[in-house]
Amino acid sequence: MLADLAILLIPGILIVEGLAVGGVGSWVTLVWVLVLGMVATLPIGAVLGSVFTGVRSQGLIQLPVMGLIAVSGIFYPVTAMPEWLQWIAQASPIYWLGLGMRSALLPDGAAGIEIAGSWRHWETAGVLGAWAVLGLLLAPVVLRRMARRESGSSVAERRERALRRVG
Hints:
The chain has helices spanning 2-15, 24-51, 55-70, 83-90, 93-105, 121-149, 152-166. By secondary structure, it is mostly helical. It has a domain at 36-42 and 64-141.
């Protein structure tokens, strides 16, 4: 994740005018949003990956996820969307992760185009924290059930097939 962040952030600082990465507060916000965002989204990915095991079914998962990304305010201001779509966007952790990142990287004046005209740090921490708790409670249960369905021989067979493809 740190390598990905560096690959995106370093050219971004050099190319995009107006990024506000300079103050200590920006870096602190960037770190807490990244850490909380990871804890909020990784368990969801583990659950979805264990429930939908086939390549085709995982492709179907990408469609709704890409839809959520499209309405999350990452590419287009969420305030320009219909209110019902704003509510859908705010129900996902993707919106809040994007909002937190925008608050860390953009100048304070950019908050004017956000919902409520502010960065809403407390709400961001609360919603990402709720998703993290939900994921950390749900993921072990789902993964335990999945592991019970797997036999050692099926895991070994899948491993052998994967190794044959690589070698």
